[in-house]
Specification:
It is built from seven helices and no strands. With 169 residues, it is mainly α. It has two domains: 109 residues, no CATH class; 57 residues, no CATH class. Helix 1 packs across helix 7. 28% of the residues are buried.
């Protein structure tokens, strides 16, 4: 059997799993449909990354008190993770949405496709002469737009992390 010090990972892991399992529930409450795929993805309510790091901080606090230097490290890591989720990763998702829209518009725009040149010119459209669509237009994957979190989703992850540690203790 593992001793007390070796099971410190249980609360953070359960907090992360709980947050991921709750994502389809929040989708159901908001959109009135189940989306089980959200359990496998990042982004959305609640933040599983935030739940994990907050549960780790709370677990360290409860086990070793507020004077342990490792708690300070965990708090700093938790702030970095939550800032990244609501800042950098949120902006990445917004940029992905813009790129997806631009690429979709380019794909549907007759200026970069190669249908009959005569039919386009009859409509007053003068296409760019390309032998085929550029690689970045043909092979570009649809980017994931839900990689970050709104501040409320980070707060939801904090709540899940704290609740899991409270329930386990």
């Amino acid at each position: 059997m593992l001793d007390h010090a070796h099971t410190i990972w249980v609360s953070p892991l359960l907090a992360m799993i709980s947050a991921q399992v709750l994502k389809p529930v929040f989708i159901m409450l908001q959109l009135r449909r189940w989306d089980w795929q959200k359990m496998r993805k990042s982004g959305g309510m609640p933040s599983s990354h935030s739940a994990l790091v907050v549960a780790l901080v709370a677990e360290l606090w409860l086990r070793y008190g507020g004077n342990d230097p490792i708690l300070g490290v965990a708090i700093l890591v938790a702030f970095i993770v939550m800032y990244d989720a609501a800042g950098v990763r949120w902006q990445t998702g917004r940029q992905a949405a813009v790129l997806n829209r631009l690429l979709n518009d380019l794909k549907t725009n007759h200026h970069v496709t190669t249908p009959s040149v005569h039919s386009l010119e009859a409509d007053g459209i003068h296409p760019i002469p390309v032998a085929k669509s550029p690689w970045w237009l043909v092979d570009w994957p649809v980017l994931d737009e839900h990689v970050g979190h709104k501040p409320t989703e980070v707060a939801g992850g904090v709540l899940v992390g704290l609740l899991v540690v409270w329930i386990l203790h």
